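Protein modeling request. Please complete all fields; requests missing the sequence field cannot be processed.
Requester role: graduate student
Desired output: 3D structure, token encoding
Chains: 1
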Amino acid sequence: MEKPIKFESRQPRHLRYRNHYRSYLVFFLASCCLIIPYWSLRFLGGDANLIFKEQNYEIAITLSYFFIFGAFYFFWLNPRLKRSVQVYADYVKLHDGKKSEDVHFNEIESVTVVCWSLFYLKMKNGHKYYFSSSLERVDYIWEKIKDTRPDLLVDIDFESFRLKLVQYDHHQKRKEWFFRHKFADVINWLILPLLFIGVSYTVQSQNIFINQRGMYFFRLGMYSLLVLLLTTFIFSMLLKKFIFDARIKKQMGEKYTDKIRDLEFEGIIIQRSKFFQLVTSCFIFSLIIRMDINLYSLTKIKEDINELKIYRGTTVFIDNRFNCVDCQYYLKEGDVVIFGRGHLGQVMAKPGEFVGEFLLDGQGRGLANENVQRVPINHLAVRSGDGANLSFIKMDDLIGKINK
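Delivered output (404 residues):
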């Protein structure tokens, strides 16, 4: 007589990795659409050897970015986009798209909580399986381990970590429908940045000359994106910590199995928080415009410039407001400026002034020199960093003044 087949009394839970992880890939592709055309235009329109010499640091950063994100995609993101987990009564089945693997709870040697929602199962054969809230409803796995192998959780606060898993699961799930409030999102992520860029240009162009408009607007765009991402992250964590986590803790405290999200409540709270995010972002944007924060930058000196007492490895501030001679932030003789493709020099004369090189005799007296020239209009006379050359540069090539 054949032995009857034993069926599971309940259908296994089928857990998948988060859908919003695909946005990481979208971000990478979008950044490629900006980086690749930039370098293509640079190499097509200039000397490759010169570009490698002058921008080797930027090229190294770009290549490192592609390498790190490529490794992140192939070794972490892509496997998770294909992977899923089925939770049975006494084991879990791991699927990676092509094959599956069974992890039986009776083969577990120990369970270790790493941090936040991350824990791993160490098997008797030494292999480790990691799980976290990147997997939907990972608390089901935790509960099945408790039901099957309570001896593994003697030294672990099961209820506390179970609550944490549910809280992180809800938090991750809220990310997937964060942009459900279309009107508020359009204002926060489209209209507000455009207003910031427009107001910044209108206010700042009255006091300074904007020579490199492309770079100017690019920086404003990056500042607006940074502020929006920062405020979104801060408000998201505040809501999680003080409202949503506290609510689910109270809810599960009253009823052990009640882990259901109150979608209507969460929707109202998130929608209202976007108004406060709007106000906070406007305040930060106002500070940026008021303090001209977007007109400052940092750079690291690549070689010693003894004549200007600036040495290799030194990080210097660049005040991009100082790029003219007849505006509020004007340059004067002796100022150290950066111009062109990162060249440094010292201002010697302004447009219309006379300038020339002279030699000293043995007694330190200046010798007459017929090589005296008048600085052309819209140009500056600048002495090179090594002090060997004197050249005229266009005002449009000025980037800013070095604040040592």
